Structures
1.
Amino acid sequence: MENITTGHWIFAAIFMVAFVSFLVWSYRKDSAMHKLYYGKGARVLLVVVVLIFVLFIVKQLLFHN
């Protein structure tokens, strides 16, 4: 850490701003396609969470000492 100069911090800040800006631009550009192909992703996530919860409850009921 003692060899990190002000130039390194400036480069890191510029890189971070550019990278986040590119991510935001890319997401906005592809958002219509994401809605078309991945519109039901929230439902799948909900089903997975419910299944994990049900498995946890069954485990607690069957293996409770």
2.
Amino acid sequence: MSQEIILKGIPASPGLTQGKVKIINFLEEIDELAKENIIVASFLTPDFVSLIKKNLQFSGIITDKGGATCHAAIVAREFKIPYIAGTVYATKKLKDDIIVTMDGEGGIVYK
């Protein structure tokens, strides 16, 4: 039985993880994360990344924009956090609290 693919993007940091989606629109929302959350954002600016470094309470990152060489990807690889960049529609297709599986090496998000 195969899993349903929801999104594909650019593999930015390898790893396989499963968790609850938490869409982040503002810096303040970083404080609301739990270990089982997968961050979903349009793009992670250096301000977001510095806060992420302080609060490593999440299991993965998915963004609409970015790539394998963006600052967030470098930080994700440093901390061994799976990251899929450049999905284009993650913030539109994914909703808070749904459970997804993400393959950071293949750049695929599964239902």
3.
Amino acid sequence: MLEADSKLDEHGEARAAVGERQTQLIANADGPAVAAEAVLKAATAVRPKVRYTAGGRARALGVLRRFAPAGAVDAGISENLRLETVAVSLHRTLVLG
């Protein structure tokens, strides 16, 4: 993972939580074969589409973005990344000291 050039101590707990969640998501992600299949499909299509999705999560997110309000999509992404927990922790650190 990429690391920040300069890290603020106040963000340490939030940074660790987001990093842990990223590691979990990457461990459970679709393999490279899924992306390779989408690339092959795009490369060999007689009439290529503008976009190709690779994997179930990408397909579900595309459907969600098409039919759900933007706020619901943002809330779903935040929930999946567990950002509410990070925000509460960061707020507690900054405000309550």
